[in-house]
Amino acid sequence: MTPIKIKIAALLVVAGMLTVGGVFAATRPSDDPAQPLPNAKAEKTKTRGDEKNPVVPVVQIVRVQAGGLERIANQVGTVESTQQAQLHPAVTGVLQKVDVNIGDRVKRGQLLAEIDAPSVALDERHATIGVEQAQGLLKEAEACVVTARAESEASKGAVTQRDAEASAAKATLTHLKKKFERVKELANQASVDQRLLGEVEAQLHAAEALSDAAVATVQNAKADTEVKKGKLLQAEATVANAKSNVEAAKLGVEKVRLVIAKTKIHAPFDGVVTRRGCSPGDYVYPGEGGGEGSLFTVMRTDVVRVVVAIPERDISLVLPGVAAEVMFDSLVGMRVSGKVARVGYSVNPANRTMRAEIDVPNPKGDIRPGMFGSVTLKLGKGPADAVRVPVGAVLGLPPSSIDEKANAVVYVYRDGKARRTRVRVSYNDGKEAEILSGLTAEDRIVATPMGLPFGDEITVEVEKPAAPK
């Protein structure tokens, strides 16, 4: 190669090297931080920066409240009358008059209707005659007692007389026995005639016969006394029986008069006639049946009963004396306070509810049987060691208002971190949830954790309160 060619080749190599150096110099990063980077390079740097410094959620923080929730049960109640009477006819007859109609207010004892029953009046006359007959027989029996008592007393006198006669006969017999012995001794000594002894002996035998007869007469008198006593007892028993017959006859009269009283239909208590099933001239007769077969239906209205079906989960809390408040859609503005008066104890297997009744004063009669009302039962506060939080702060809140086994989640705030915490929810009233475990009254929690990134511990920023206007 000639010297000229060698020089030209060297110049070309140098020029090529200068060109390559300029290209490398153009692509080298700038050492100045204020120098903007090309677009592609800038976007790549921003992505790395987001991964290292993510956006921090801003949250509201609320403090946990100590104490359990007031248990509230809201149920639908039905109004019933505390007293309701279906008035049926007790006698057969024709309605003479009907003095009331539906909607009429009645007082206890007020005449509502009257039944014409002529056969009952005849029964009364018959029963009255029976009383008179029984009283006549009683007088006859009492007269027999008087006679029997007199005869009994007379027989006692006869016994006394016969005793006296028997004593006299005995004394005579004793005298004659002694006389006979003296005469016999004298006769043996031949001091008296034997004929005298015979006469005395005859007198002695006669006295013995008279004494035996007197004793027999006493026995007969005593037996007659016993007979008279029996007749007296019989007469007295007849009187007792006659008195019983008089009382039975009087009861028959009273019974008939009770039936007569039932020809008049009276209101059994103060109330309102809610049904009338009769008209004057109707033929009525006694019978059983419901309201459709009755003459009238009367309901008491000064106090009404609100019946509530308590769900099975609440029955252990609903006891007599529990405070209740009742409102009615048809009575705007009326709010009635009362207490549970009684509970049914057993659970209806068809709907798993227990019957509870609330007695409500109704002095103006505005609350009517059959109306529906909204009943709020205050069942008492929850456990004192429980805490309360807003329902919006709880994730996974159980659908049931009371669920002892439910697990839910809240986010507890400490030192700029929101920590996912499991809690046990026992009750919620739609505004607050009652927590049995997992939180303390000193904790603070995220008010609305919905939308927070998933994680056991999340960095958050507390929302600053708005500046006062």
TrEMBL record:
Give one GO molecular function term. efflux transmembrane transporter activity
Where in the numbering of this chain does the Multidrug resistance protein MdtA-like barrel-sandwich hybrid domain appear? 84-287
Task: List where Basic and acidic residues composition bias occurs.
Answer: 41-51
Q: Where is this region: Disordered?
A: 27-51
Q: Which UniProt keywords apply?
A: Signal
Signal peptide residue numbers: 1-25
The record ties this protein, via InterPro entries, to:
Beta-barrel_RND_2 (IPR058792), MdtA-like_BSH (IPR058625), RND_pump_MFP (IPR006143)
- The chain positions of domain CusB-like beta-barrel read 306-378
Where would one find coiled-coil regions in this protein? none
Q: Which domain of life is it from?
A: Bacteria
- Identify the Gene3D superfamilies for this entry: 2.40.30.170, 2.40.420.20, 2.40.50.100
The similarity comment for this entry is:
Belongs to the membrane fusion protein (MFP) (TC 8.A.1) family.
Q: What is this protein called?
A: Putative Co/Zn/Cd efflux system membrane fusion protein
Tell me what organism the protein belongs to: Fimbriiglobus ruber
